[in-house]
Design the sequence.
């Protein structure tokens, strides 16, 4: 809500308001939820799922990521940013072996669109663009001449749904701007929805050329792929970028306190409360070569039936900068509600503290990392600050989500005044 200087916490606040007289509580809640849910569902461009998954499992997988997108939209934006970087960089080195290669082909390969089948032992490898390039460069495979139209035809992308979501968001922003211009207050729910729209639009752009809800892939048949070739490919395509950021906690493959489960990507053994690792799938020689390195996480993905959405082993400083900027943008816009009128002074104070803390957590993560950089990777003291920041960020974020709903129980009456659109229509006598 945009507050007036003459409003205080002692002024009359009202609760639920019905619809017949214009803008009501249900209208406010539904307009915000519609923007959040429709944008969250349509913005997701997930990788090709496990070939044996049934329809309900695929739906639940997307619902899981939609939930993550609602909680941490800047995280989803950074995932999309990383995937687009990989897809775009593949154009340069794949053109020689696949002249038809485009950004869409890059996305297709990064999402598991090309699989190499070793006919000698019936193993189906899930290779991405870098590995496909290495195999083509060494004369082991030929890239199938699949066209952009063929990929688009197999994609279930609905430009109509995306357009409707963007138009709905644009109308929401226009209505909010009109209320500000006419000095009508916005609820905290509406204020919190605005930065979500901004992050979602950026994510739309980053994933615009990526196929959507694709369930089939292109198989490249190969008589045999030796362990020696796998080791050479791992050495030349994984180890060159295998060192993780010096300030980020290690992956599960390199430390017992790994972060793979943070993005809900690994299977969980609930009986033993442990993450199911996949390094046992690797041939002995290859496993020994990549053991306890960031390359292990990358090589393990070759033997999985589907590519994880979040490639933790590949993130570098550029991805971290994108995440920080996204976090500052998303959380910073919550400061618009600094002078809002809340049901109580305590809630007003908690909102301000929560927003400042979230911005502070993002700002503090890097200085903490610099101070602790000298500690060995996997050290408890090195991991502890990042863990604490993550938990505190989640708690404060949860409070803001709860407050946008409970805050509607008492708002200034002007919240329910409708925008006077007639003043923007030229008066022709």
Sequence:
């Amino acid at each position: 809500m945009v507050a007036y200087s003459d409003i205080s916490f002692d002024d009359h606040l009202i609760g639920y308001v019905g619809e017949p007289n214009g803008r009501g509580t249900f209208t406010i809640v539904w307009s915000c939820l519609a923007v959040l849910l429709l944008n969250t569902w349509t913005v997701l461009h997930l990788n090709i799922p496990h070939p044996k998954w049934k329809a309900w499992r695929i739906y639940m997988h997307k619902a899981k990521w939609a939930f993550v997108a609602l909680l941490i939209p800047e995280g989803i934006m950074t995932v999309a940013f990383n995937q687009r970087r990989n897809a775009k960089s593949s154009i340069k080195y794949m053109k020689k072996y696949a002249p038809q290669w485009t950004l869409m082909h890059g996305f297709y390969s990064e999402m598991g669109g090309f699989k190499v089948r070793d006919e000698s032992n019936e193993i189906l490898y899930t290779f991405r663009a870098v590995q496909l390039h290495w195999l083509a460069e060494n004369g082991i495979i030929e890239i199938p001449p699949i066209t952009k139209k063929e990929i688009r035809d197999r994609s279930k992308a609905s430009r109509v749904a995306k357009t409707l979501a963007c138009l709905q968001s644009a109308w929401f922003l226009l209505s909010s701007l009109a209320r500000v211009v006419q000095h009508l207050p916005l609820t905290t729910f509406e204020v919190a929805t605005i930065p979500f729209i901004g992050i979602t639009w950026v994510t739309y752009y980053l994933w615009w050329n990526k196929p959507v809800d694709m369930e089939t892939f292109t198989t490249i048949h190969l008589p045999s792929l030796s362990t020696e070739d796998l080791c050479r490919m791992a050495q030349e395509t994984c180890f060159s970028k295998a060192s993780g950021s010096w300030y980020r906690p290690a992956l599960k493959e390199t430390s017992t306190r790994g972060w793979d489960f943070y993005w809900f990507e690994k299977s969980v053994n609930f009986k033993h409360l442990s993450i199911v690792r996949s390094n046992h799938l690797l041939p002995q020689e290859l496993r020994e070569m990549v053991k306890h390195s960031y390359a292990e996480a990358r090589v393990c993905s070759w033997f999985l039936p589907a590519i994880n959405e979040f490639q933790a082993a590949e993130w570098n400083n550029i991805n971290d900068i994108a995440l920080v900027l996204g976090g500052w943008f998303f959380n910073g816009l919550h400061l618009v509600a600094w002078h809002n009128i809340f049901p109580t002074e305590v809630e007003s104070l908690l909102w301000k503290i929560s927003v400042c803390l979230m911005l502070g957590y993002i700002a503090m993560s890097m200085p903490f990392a610099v101070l602790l950089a000298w500690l060995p990777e996997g050290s408890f003291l090195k991991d502890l600050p990042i863990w604490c920041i993550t938990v505190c960020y989640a708690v404060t974020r949860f409070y803001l989500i709860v407050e946008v709903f409970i805050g509607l129980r008492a708002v200034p009456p002007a919240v329910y005044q409708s925008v006077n659109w007639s003043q923007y229509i030229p008066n022709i006598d």
About this structure: The longest helix spans residues 345-371. Residues 1-10 have pLDDT under 50 and may be disordered. Residues 248 and 369 are 8 Å apart (CA to CA). Strands lie at 114-118, 123-126, 218-222, 268-269, 274-275.
